[in-house]
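The passage that follows is intended for readers who have already worked through the single-chain material. We present the inputs for a multi-component assembly, then the predicted structure in tokenized form, and finally a short commentary. You are encouraged to pause after the input and sketch how you expect the pieces to fit together before reading on.
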Amino acid sequence: DQQVKQNSPSLSVQEGRISILNCDYTNSMFDYFLWYKKYPAEGPTFLISISSIKDKNEDGRFTVFLNKSAKHLSLHIVPSQPGDSAVYFCAASAGNAGNMLTFGGGTRLMVKP
Amino acid sequence: DGGITQSPKYLFRKEGQNVTLSCEQNLNHDAMYWYRQDPGQGLRLIYYSQIVNDFQKGDIAEGYSVSREKKESFPLTVTSAQKNPTAFYLCASNDWGQPQHFGDGTRLSIL
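Having made your guess, compare it with the prediction:
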């Protein structure tokens, strides 16, 4: 049973436009959420996180929104750049911040020049 | 330059063989992790260690073994009991409670 789901396996956007990547979770005990970015043949790199006490966290072009009632989070990238083309994973943990992560299946983002 | 080094990058195993994947970190992190990634899927936790000489099973530990004799090293052995070992293996580390840092992975294939 997948506790963290990324229902869109791929997303294509034009350079300069907004990219919105979505993630849904089922475990109500999750209280910390992270987004990782992964290029082919490399390990994931941490992008941004959010605690359940917040509903928004922003870092430069990246913003994560959390809707606890809907058990949904999203990552907004504005403006999108070709270098953002990668696979994005959302991850969640329950009671221990960055540890014991449960990952979604990933969304491949392609930003077209 | 601090980071996590995984070796080798590619590894081939014959049926019935055990193989060991190396993971070394110089970030002075207490916690280390091993994940498996299959095509089109997310990462699944195999084992983790919060401290030297201690480790815990993750979601898919069957057919794998680990050791943590030194803080900087967390090798993973894929045993012959693992019936479907072909995958991309990722090692990670963190200070407990902080985001995990990942190595660049080892791709294991069966000959």
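Commentary: The mean pLDDT of chain B is 93. Chain B touches chain A at residues 4, 6, 9, 31, 35, 40-45, 48, 90, 92, 94, 96-105, 107 (CB under 8 Å). How closely did your sketch match?
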